[in-house]
Amino acid sequence: MRKSDVFPTKYLSAGDLAGKPHVLEITRAPLETLKPNGSEQAKIVLYFRDAKKSLPLNKTNFDAVADCAGTDETDNWPGVRVEVFPTTTEMQGKTVACIRIRKPRELPLAPSKAPAAPPPSIDDEIPF
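Request: output the structure for the sequence above.
Response:
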């Protein structure tokens, strides 16, 4: 049994991503008051289409979403697609799991077919 099964959270965590990046579409990004460790903090919280959990943003991830959206105006973020991926960061001298955000990777274009060679000429004239 996994820790997340025993201690479920309402917010997305790196463990929820199962080691893989996921492309998600933002449905809303309201400012909410959170109470981590008993102290109140105002944070932008991302909600995603077809996702059960939301993601409060730190400054690093806020800037990454703004880059994806082309604006730091959160009212314009619904409909923007982002890629969330698990990684690690240093916090209070320890390496901890975290989520980061980037623009979704572009799929490579399918190779184009080379143009067909022109049919051989059946002109019997000799050019010289």
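The mean pLDDT is 86.
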